[in-house]
Amino acid sequence: MEVDSKPKKVKGEKAASGGSEDDDYVPYVPVKIRKTQTMLRLRGKVVEEDLKDSGADQRDEEEGLGPRSNVSLLDQHQVLKEKAEARKESAKEKQLKEEEKILESVAEGRALMSVKEMAKGIIYDDPIKTSWKPPRYILNMPGARHDRVRKKFHILVDGELIPAPIKSFREMKLPPAILKGLKKKGIVHPTPIQIQGIPTALAGRDLIGIAFTGSGKTLVFTLPIIMFCLEQEKRLPFSKREGPYGLIICPSRELARQTHSIIEYYCKLLEDEGTPQLRCALCIGVWVMVCWAMYYKI
Q1: What is the CATH number of domain 136-295?
Q2: pTM of the full predicted structure?
Q3: Fewer Cβ within 10 Å of end Cβ, the chain: N or C?
Q4: Spans of all domains in the chain
């Protein structure tokens, strides 16, 4: 009979070398990982002891997130929410930088210039010559009053020699027929974009207006263009096949139809009051770029 001469370790005893029972502890390896290691050994590959997780899971573990973390689900939700808000802020910052570039191009005087004009070095320094002027008492008001009006209606402006804001359509010197038409539509007082935009357009200045949907932006460019066309027709009537005098480009068919109907409405009111006839046409392009032109005497 053979007897094993090696002493067996009993739980709680220390080994002869002086080590503890933790020295012989073998960590538990899940069955799935053991099978994977066995398959890799059969193929002659060396398997590392620690398998690497995916990049996303590893980041979550480092941050203390995931189903096995000690962080509560509410805290994890708060962390993920803060990450989403940070991404939104970064996108908003990117948009603000793009808007700054646009404003820089406007300041340089290149925003409303064609490629041909920029190639030839053509620069337009003077605004369009118009006969419209605001009432004298508004011109005599100090600049501090205009700043108070803009602050009251939350109007932000940028530029040189900005025209004064006007708080009523009558002070904008619009014809009585247009004032009656506005009243029929329930438009009594101008909106903030109209308070600053219509006087600016009537003065012949370049304008880029930004306002919310439904704030009355359409009237900002339709009323001045009607006034320009009416003034031109009174001074020197257009002959046959001349025109167009004004052109508006719209991004959609619906907006073009709406703009065309507004122009027709006010032109008809002016014609009923005995002013020269102003004719307008709606043109829908192949590239879904819609425009309409106001012209006279086809």
Answers
A1: 3.40.50.300
A2: 0.56
A3: N
A4: 25-54, 136-295
